[in-house]
Amino acid sequence: MRLLTHNMLKCHVKNCTDPDKQYPLRFKDVQIEQIEYEPNEEFLVRMLPRLDWTALVKTAKDLNIAIPDSVPEDPASDQEFLQKLHTIIMETHVTEGSMVCDGCSHEYKITKGIANMLLAEHEI
Amino acid sequence: MGLPTPDTGHLRQTEYATVYEPAEDTYLLLDAFENDREELQAQRPTICVEIGSGSGCVSAFLGQVLSPYGALIFSTDINPAANNATRETVAKTPSESVFDQCRTRFVQALDSRLRGNIDVLVFNPPYVVTPSAEVDSTIEAAAWAGGVLGREVLDLLIPQVPALLSPGGRFYLVVIEQNKPDDIIAEFAALGLAGQRVLSRRAGIESLSILRFIRPKL
């Protein structure tokens, strides 16, 4: 699972509604793998407005990954920024571990790079 | 002519026994994508989601259709064997897209962040008419048993679709005649989403159609 995907996941347990706590999910005991991938700047620029930058910064810092605090004014022409972004969201994979919600403490497992976001009936 | 059908030969392995194998309904959906290739590329989708990806054949094919442009293609399924089968299929299929899989029902856990952000949404639902009790009764049945009118699973998703799509975003849906496609189109119209049948084909006892809905651009 790429950090790009993690940026799109939010706790969906019933009654867990504090927006400041249910997102982003906090990684716990994770294994990280860097997998090289051909950069595609045009795609990165399109994806940028779809990202929650604040959540990405929080997550990257938790994992001790260097990340710019803010998006530059003209990201499309900032090669250095795009390269960093590429490394963080496209090449950084979480292969094992879990994601914890700070609101309700629910733990979502990640196995072989796939997050299990399925909840039991009573949790939905 | 045409793009190659993604290789799903690995479904013969026992760990994938519970995963729906590509069949005529799958191929009709691939044909609909191929017919729309030009407009899909012009739309330049950034985020695509396939619900219930099963073998991964459709997700992988969508990646091919969009190439040379890249997109993020999320594939969800409640069956972990399907998540793994999808991962294997997309890895074997050359495309410019990036793929990630997630075990979830519909778009649960993704829906909040992806609201208004899905450029292409795809669902080949469990559409077979069955007694209600068969829906989700086993992991195998979950792939095809659709309950009353074959609509019990689809009907849970319908109200969510308009808000999930981005302006200009599209929703592709596989149906059979028993699902009452005209009623489905009318329901979406009432939700502000115009749609039509873009392709129909008879396959054995099934009369299949692909419905396509497009959210108006702002």
UniProtKB/TrEMBL annotation, chain A:
InterPro entries: Trm112, Trm112-like
Protein name: Trm112p-domain-containing protein
Domain of life the protein comes from: Eukaryota
GO biological process, one term: tRNA methylation
Similarity field: Belongs to the TRM112 family.
Lineage of the species this protein comes from: Eukaryota, Fungi, Fungi incertae sedis, Zoopagomycota, Kickxellomycotina
Any GO molecular function: protein heterodimerization activity
From TrEMBL, chain B:
Gene3D superfamilies to which the protein is assigned, alphabetical: Vaccinia Virus protein VP39
GO CC terms: eRF1 methyltransferase complex; nucleus
Enzyme Commission (EC) number: 2.1.1.297
Top EC class of this enzyme: transferase
Coiled-coil annotated residue ranges, if any: none
Keywords assigned: Methyltransferase, Nucleus, S-adenosyl-L-methionine, Transferase
Gene Ontology terms: biological process: methylation
Example GO molecular function: peptide chain release factor N(5)-glutamine methyltransferase activity
Location relative to the cell: Nucleus
Family membership: Belongs to the eukaryotic/archaeal PrmC-related family.
PANTHER family according to UniProt: METHYLTRANSFERASE N6AMT1
Name the record gives this protein: HemK methyltransferase member 2
